[in-house]
């Protein structure tokens, strides 16, 4: 991590750099960041690094511990449940509010991306799959002119998808594509309430997806038993 950063928009560059390190696996959940050491490695002052870390703390990625450094947070089941509730509420609200703006081109794009995702699952190309998945959701998110909603959704999704993993559940991803098709069918049929419900009550419902979420965490070897037992408390 000895890469030097330019001065322009330095805090933003540091923020992006830290996200890149998370994606590469150079910064892992449970690790700590020594501000002084990290700033020296990057060849910057502590101020832009602190600004970037404050942003990351707001998004839930880290916890700043006074005089002890910065802890990179583990993603807990409670975090996942909260993120699902937030994303489901906001995406369903966008689809409901912007429903009249869907055109044949939007529907065609949704169908194209969903078909591509199914092919990527068969090819075990999950890196491209997740990029296509984000693109699918962005088709209707981009219909909204509510920038606050869009800026809120993105960090929540980053929180779910950050940090690399080679573990995937093909059955779950295929089910996600089936849910995408339900959404497309509702749009085609002019069913505004149904389209919103697919996103809120199925696709982003923790309860509906809980079996796969638990399996995913277990496959990663994470200690979830106690948290799972207490999830409704």
Automatic annotation (TrEMBL):
> Which keywords does UniProt give here?
DNA-binding, Transcription, Transcription regulation
- A Pfam family that this protein carries is FCD
Please give one Gene Ontology molecular function term for this protein. Answer: DNA binding
For whether the record's keyword set contains Nuclease, the answer is no
For the keyword Nuclease, the answer is no
Residue span(s) of domain HTH gntR-type: 8-75
User: Could you name the domain of life of the organism this protein comes from?
Assistant: Bacteria
Question: CDD domains annotated for this entry?
Answer: WHTH_GntR
What is the name listed in the Swiss-Prot or TrEMBL entry for this protein?
GntR family transcriptional regulator
Species assigned in the record: Desulfomarina profundi
